[in-house]
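Sequence only, no structure available. Ideas?
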Amino acid sequence: MRIPIIPALVVASTILLAGCTAEAPTPSREVVAQAGTNKMGSGELRTDLAPLATRFEDLADAESARWSSGSLGGDDRVPGPSTSWIDAVVVLPQASYDALRAAHEYAESAEAPSVADALAASVPAGPLLVSSDLDQRFALSEGSSDVYLDDATHSLVISSRFQ
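Reply:
I predicted one. Tokens follow.
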């Protein structure tokens, strides 16, 4: 039995063209951090304190904050666990800042914090101080944090990743 050539070519062409015309899905969220990272979020720069104080008990009495959040890479439409991030610059009352400063040993940071572009202008000029003990203090469950202190502004810069 012979298969007619023309109908077979039509079917094959239709299948190939259908695969070529599908559009790539557009991300539902924009990239909000520096090139080379995979931080995804709305790009909104927030100033409300309650969500930060809920996650980080040492920020309960913060005076002000500028922060942004989202998820790391991936696709919100795919089910399963994802890693979230929060980048924040938080100003503490002097007494609270002094208590954190006295609780750990610090070294001057050689690198600037890696935060979302929307927050970069809020990062103090420094010099910024770092401590692995302070990073652990601010680490959320199943995650990690990089924390920087600025003595001149009694501020913390937090870059946290967690599930």
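Residues 28-162 form one domain.
Hope that gets you unstuck.
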